[in-house]
């Protein structure tokens, strides 16, 4: 059981490392947040699950489940809020960005009634 916990913890560490690498390699804040959120959510979940498997006597199952649920719900939500705030503040997208759905939605909301595309 301890070996399985160590392997899962190592896999979580790899995801966390890839998330950090994504923060360095991505061209703009929006891509960095996306890379960081996906990798760190999975990495944190695997890391905590591996610790729970390796040290199941010292760590309670209810505590691990609560931590995992907290990470699953808060990490994507906080990143979404940060990305919307960055967009509203006017932080530019990367030059290679093809589509900006949020800007299109905001334009559609501000158009007067009766005018359409």
Summarize the structure.
The chain is mainly α and 117 residues long. It contains 4 helices and no strands.
What would your notes on this structure say?
There is one protein chain. The chain is mainly alpha-helical and 117 residues long. The protein has one domain. The protein has four helices and no strands.
Topology:
Layout lengths: L1 H24 L3 H26 L6 H29 L11 H10 L7
Largest sheet: none
Helix content: over 70%
The tally of strands reads: 0
State the end-to-end distance: 61 Å
Low-confidence stretches: none
Order of helices and strands: HHHH
Number of contiguous helices: 4
Structural class: mainly alpha
Mean pLDDT: 85
Number of domains: 1
- Beta-strand percent range: under 5%
Q: Rough shape?
A: elongated
Cα-atom Rg, whole angstroms? 19 Å
Which keywords apply here?
single chain, mainly alpha
